[in-house]
Amino acid sequence: MREILVEALPATGAELAELAKARIGVSRQAVHAQLSRMAKEGLISVTGEGKVRRYTLVETELLREELLLQGAAEDRIWLKSVTPRLPPGLPPRAKEILFYAFTEMMNNAIDHSGGGRCVISFHVNAREISFQIEDDGVGIFAKVAAACGLDDERFAILELAKGKFTTARQFHSGEGIFFTSRAVDRFCLVSGKNSLVSVGGEDFLFEGRAAEGKGTLVQGAIHLDTPRTLESVFAKYSSEDGGFERTKVPVSLAIVGEENLISRSQAKRLLARFDRFREVLLDFHGVNSIGQAFADEVFRVFPGIHPEVIITPVRAGPAILRMIRHVQSGPRV
User: Fold this and answer.
1) In terms of DSSP H, where are the helices of the chain?
2) What's the CA gap between 184 and 61, in Å, rounded?
3) Of 22, 58, 204, 233, which shows the fewest CB atoms inside 10 Å?
4) Does one domain contain both 107 and 43?
5) Largest alpha-carbon pair distance within the chain?
């Protein structure tokens, strides 16, 4: 029962009781008894009274430290600053993912941010362990947009979501953000007025930020009982010889504002660098329709030029699938 309650927090006692009854058939009294024990153990906090009493996970700050980026090394930061503060008994899978995600993102701050300082912090609660890195550099989306000649920083988010993108190809593979965002359970990358959010390693959400800040902020959170392993994450997007050959791209990131996906220029923006992969899964979650020109460019013209690249639509609705079939079976013009 405890695992169910922890996963559902924050919530009211009534909401938790209904959930536990539906999931495992326990009584309201048993739920409240368990919540009382968790509160005494310091795992949760309680606010309000009666039916509006609300339970929230207690979060403990493990570490907060300001670092100079010049001459820093992510592995030394992990060993000297982070490792001594980690909670005892941290599950091996969570620790392995935490090490990979933090050191990859710390390396980005050191090598790419152009900043002088950063602040790192770690927190833990009964459900997850998380980290945050905030630097004072130029901002990741601004840097990617400048490197790609993009006139809108929001298009940089799409390039990062594809993977295999780096502004220093001679030193980096461009895989860090891609695999980190899919290894952790919750990932957030914030720069300027824009942010990229991934939940469960699958759904990417583009969000605006009200106040423009300087530099880049990255957050990652890993469930303590995560069933995911780094090996399984890499295997999902790798070929038999271990190369990074498969990617999954959220088509919704090609949408800016209220525009619809109808033009060939929008399609070409989406297709950029697809020729570096053997297989591309196009995730249409959140996209209701596409235009004929857009579909033709993606599913007829590009495959004709790059037959070695397999493009597969996933989570596409009936209207999108009909349009794809239409351009694939129609006359060649």
Assistant:
1) 2-8, 13-24, 28-40, 74-77, 92-112, 140-148, 154-162, 176-183, 230-236, 264-271, 292-296, 302-305, 318-329
2) 19
3) 22
4) no
5) 72
Beta-carbon-side half-sphere exposure of residue 315 (alpha carbons within 13 Å): 14
Helix, strand and coil in the chain, % to nearest 5: 45, 25, 35
Percent of the chain with pLDDT over 70: 92
**Strands 128-135 vs 216-223: parallel, antiparallel or unpaired:** antiparallel
d(CA 131, CA 144): 23
> Is 12 in a helix, a strand, or coil?
strand
Please report whether residue 99 resides in a domain: yes
How many domains is the chain built from? 3
Residue count (the chain) = 333
pLDDT digits (tens, 9 = 90+) for 175-192: 889 899 999 999 999 998
- Name the residue type at position 299: F
Spatial separation of the C-alpha atoms in residues 276 and 247, rounded to whole Å: 10
Both 163 and 182 in one domain: the answer is yes
Question: H or E segment at 131?
Answer: strand 128-135
Structural domain including 65 reads 60-233
Residues 248-275: pLDDT tens digits?
999 988 887 777 899 999 999 999 999 9
Does residue 240 lie within any of the structural domains?
A: no
